Backbone:
């Protein structure tokens, strides 16, 4: 059990095609240490996949996260964004600056004001995105365990069974940032280099060069370290 002085809320936000289910192992470990843990599933994904429609935008997902803080009266919280959720938590910080004491980007995008998700997609994602738009579809396929570099076969099967399509509308609007993210006192960028993503390599280098950021590298994990090594993720979060 953690010291009561160090017990605080954690809000863990998943990436593209995933859901709150992704954090089950980390959530259970943090809860056992006495923390309050929230793992919201973004609209149109996971168990909320029945809500997928053309109206889902980045602002929808930002509101999903902000509303957790509002309805649960959260303050002094640790906010974690994984992968695509780097866009979400960056935007959410514009409304949550006084409620978040530590911000974590877990192998995640680190966008600047005015950038759009569609401009950050890799070649395969861009192809799927464009194909979906040409067909008038509102989503593109989510990632699979092979692309995610999930380390254990049993975990790969579990992740593949849960992945849902990613709404394309979230990648079309520019994120609106005024610097709230940068004013958070404690910021951590975590990279899992087994997953090839030049955007994340650049984000890590950017944070390593900025003394206001902490950085960490998880050498033996794929893109979903909360699946591959939940104990290591918990250790990083509690060390904040």
Residues:
């Amino acid at each position: 059990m953690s010291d009561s002085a160090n017990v605080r809320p954690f809000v863990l936000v998943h990436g593209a095609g995933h859901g709150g289910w992704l954090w089950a192992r980390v959530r259970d470990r943090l809860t056992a240490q006495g923390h309050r843990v929230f793992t919201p599933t973004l609209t149109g994904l996971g168990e909320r996949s029945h809500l997928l429609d053309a109206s889902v935008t980045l602002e929808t997902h930002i509101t999903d996260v902000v509303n957790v803080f509002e309805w649960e009266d959260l303050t002094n919280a640790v906010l974690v964004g994984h992968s695509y959720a780097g866009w979400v938590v960056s935007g959410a910080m514009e409304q949550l600056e006084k409620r978040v004491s530590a911000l974590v980007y877990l192998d995640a995008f680190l966008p600047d004001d005015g950038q759009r998700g569609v401009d950050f997609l890799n070649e395969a994602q861009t192809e799927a995105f464009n194909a979906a738009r040409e067909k008038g579809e509102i989503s593109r396929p989510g990632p699979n365990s092979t692309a995610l570099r999930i380390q254990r076969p049993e975990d790969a099967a579990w992740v593949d069974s849960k992945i849902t399509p990613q709404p394309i509308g979230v990648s079309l609007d520019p994120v609106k940032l005024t610097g709230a993210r940068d004013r958070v006192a404690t910021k951590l960028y975590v990279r899992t280099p087994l997953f090839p993503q030049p955007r994340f390599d650049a984000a890590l280098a950017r944070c390593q060069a900025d003394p206001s950021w902490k950085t960490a590298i998880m050498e033996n994990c794929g893109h979903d370290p909360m699946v591959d090594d939940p104990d290591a993720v918990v250790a990083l979060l509690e060390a904040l």
